[in-house]
Each structure stands twice: as C-alpha cells, then as structure tokens.
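Quick one: DUF2163 domain-containing protein from Sedimenticola selenatireducens, structure tokens please.
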Amino acid sequence: MKTISTALKNHLAEEVTTLCVCWKIVRRDGVEQGFTSHVKDLTYDGLLYEAATGFTPSNIASTDDLAVNNMEVVGLLESQRLSASELQAGRYDYADVYVFMLNYEDLTMQDLKLAYGKLGQVRSGKVVFEAEVRSLSQGLQQTIGELFDTACRADLGDSRCGVLIKPDRWEPHTLYALDDVVRPTLANGNERQYKITTAGYSGSTEPTWDATIGNSTNGVSVELLTDGAFTNAKGVYWNGSAAWTIAAGVASCDGTQTANDALSQPVTGVNGVLYETSFTVSNFSAGQVRIVCGTQVGTWRVANGAFTEDIIMTGTTPISIEADADFVGDIDDVSVSEKVTTVWETENCYTKLGTITAVNSNENFTDAARTEADNTFDRGYLTFTSGLNVGVSMEIKTFTSDTFQSALPFPYTVQVGDSYEVYAGCDKTMETCRDDYDNIINFRGEPFIPGSDEIMKFGGQ
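--- reply ---
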C-alpha cells in the first residue's frame, strides 16, 4: 500500500502536472547521491538531486504477489559523481536505490514512493551505463542448496572454511580474549599476525611487533602522570591548596585542609578504560586519603603502606590525590598507568604486503621484492592500500616472476609506489586444503566420490 499526501494526490488528478522522477542511491560505504529526470537540479530532504545525468529508467511495475519486480536504468556517464571507473570499481555494487516522484514546482507536497531495491548487475562503456535494480523479492529467486562435488564448496577465509586469511587490525583500548588474532596497523605493518597468549586490554600505544615467528610481544602501557615521585616544586606539575606541600620527594598534607582537598594534575585519560593506580603513604597519623581518576574514586587508605588498585576511569580529567579534612601524612610514588596485560605470539600471516615497482597495464604490474614461487597468488585477491585504487580489490589470475596479472583491469591507473595487500588463493582441492592450509578438518568437498565410470559398472565388475 502506498501513501500519498492530499496535495500531491490532487495534483495528479489535474490535466497538467509538473512531475519528475528522483533516484536516491545509498552506497555500502554510506555515500548518498541523488539524481532526477527533471531539467534542473533539485534539493529535497537535504539531498541534492542532479539533473545533468541523462538517465532513462524503464517502466516500473508493482504487483501484490511474490513476482520479481525488477527495473533497469540506462544513462550517460555525464555526472562527475557517477563515473565508469567508480562503477567498475564496485562502489555501487548492492547499493540501496529509492525511486520516487515529486512535483518539482512544489516540493512541500512530499513524494510518492515508486520502488525500492538494490543495484544488481551494472554494465558500463565509455559513455553509457546500464544498471539493474532488483526488488526485495529477487532474493526469493536464489537457488538454495548444494551439490556433492570433489571440490570444496567453501570460499577461502569464509565462516565455513575457517582459515584466518585477513585478521582485523590491532586497536587501542580493546579487550582481547585468548587466541584472538590481529594484524599490525598499516602504519606499523609487517607480514605477520599475532595471537593472544595472555588475554587483557590493549593500551593506547601500539607495540613494536616482533617479526620472528614464535616470539612474544608484550602490550605497551602508558603512564598518565608526570613526576609521580615529586621531584619538582608544587605548581610545576601538581597543583593544590596551601594545605598540600611538596618537598624532599614527597607530597605532604598538614591537616588544615577542607574535606576532599585534592592535589591534582590536569592530565587526560580515556573514559571507560581500566587503569592501574598505586601510591605510597608514610608518616601517617590521622585521617584518610585516596586516588581519584576523573570522577571515579578509589578506596580510602588509613595507614602507612604501598597501595595498588585498578580503577575504570569515568570522565577524562583530572587525576588527583584526595584527602579528607583530618588526613596528616606523606604521599610518594604515585602512578596511574593503563592496565595492559596482553601478550602476543608471532605467527605467519597469509596476507602479504608490498609495493608496485613496475606497471605494464592496469591489469599487469610487478613487485620486484616478491620472492614467492610462481602461481603462489593464483586465484587470490589483491587490494590496494594507497594510490588511486585504494580499497579496490581484484582477483589475481596468474602470478609469474614477481608479476601479477589480475582477472580484470583495475578501474584507476596503477602507479609505481602504490602499496597493496595480497593473499594466495585456493584451488579447492583436498590436497591444497591439507598441505597449504592445514585445514582438512573443514574441507567441504567429497574427494572420494566415485566417478561416472564406477557408477556405470555392472554388479560384480
């Protein structure tokens, strides 16, 4: 059932109408674009609908059953926002498409929704593109089921295969569980992956990763405070009321303070992150003292000793030593550092990094630093991480003598110096699964199915 405003309904009943069709495209990366059949650009609901695109939609048919309602659009590649290279790069694959009608003379009449779907097959030439818009019922046309086969039915790296081809990048302030695996960030990248052997939180600073397989890398903890040993005068790093003094390497409180009087530093922590706090109390005679992280308070201490406590920071600033109105004593060795316990073990990673050193074409290029054997990356995927093709992936047809031949040309010019990630493919045979990936337990084929000769034999043969 379609809804329509009374004003637009009345306009449709008139002999002369001022209507146009608008297309709103929402790509998978969140980019929204608008196009219209009107002769001028329109702005509707905060989005610009561009007129100079020369597109021609097919008729739109809607039914009340489960029949597939598809439509097509043919257009000229005139818009700077809709280019052949972007279409070929897959930027518009499976994009959401909203089609509706407007009265371009009075946009306050609102719209009449005509269709919704996803972009299916896109074909583009030098000046013209064709795109299929598939309705929601298209999903019901998909064949569900599989055939017995000697080849594996899983795709390398998917949930059924289980081979970890491309682990997530390391992230700060993240709780990692035992056996979690990460790759370094691009800025600190190498051709290794790292598995957690001691669980815990990561810090704000990425570790310097040990590239030797089997070695360990410890997480890095950052200290928030400066001069926790009180070697500088009051006012340099620490600030507080006159009741607090700093001398001879300690901070002292003389009992003249008001309740919850604080000696503090305006340092910035991270809200919700676990910090390990510690300080030492000496020459204690009365009252109580505690450490405060943002708005999160620690435990009151009422004796001499060295105290350690884990605190989840609330707010971001400041860090302070807080005394009640009766506290008399000295404070020393104050520390607030990220609670980082993670330990990582170095493993080989299937995803390799490299830089293009020579270009023959957009589908044939070389990395002279590659030392792998011929055919290593056949059927694998290469993704550029810099250059004009950043984020674009393409299947590798062949890899020979450090030269890649992609299945299709990359949409933008491949240049010397472009960096990339690449991983080897899989021919879906039992031998490759067993020998190259040690993953035979997840093999999704039936390698011992008898061939047609065996099936056609008579009994006893």
